[in-house]
Specification:
Helix content is 25%, strand content 30%. It is of the alpha/beta class and 136 residues long. Helix 2 crosses helix 3.
Length: 136
Amino acid sequence: MQASTLKTLSLPLGQVTYYDIGKGKPILLLHGFPDTPSTFRHQIDALNARGYRCLIPYLPGYGASSPPRRGGNSMLAIAEILEQFMARAAAGEQVSIYGHDWGSVIAQVMSSLHYQPKYPTAYTLDKLILCAVPPA
């Protein structure tokens, strides 16, 4: 992961700093606690070789990504800011979401929001992949 692939989006709910690596169908990779995007450094080449564009944000409150501007640090507030992020980063595309550890909890909340009329989305959710899911 190179600094040259690090980008930032300013959104109504906050700022998301992320890596955008490769070309093709977007896959959102959500790290856990206390991890960072580097958690996925060994998966990037394999995903790129299979035609995926890896979007790997610092979760809100980590790195240069701001905490959500409303809702505190709840899973709902974090999922809402990431929904805004994906609406900008992958508008009109089919997206896979891979959540690891606490990222898997956020991925589940995002998938729930995705189908709520209150949260219109600009992308299509294709796959939801959960790994190392912590107990609720």
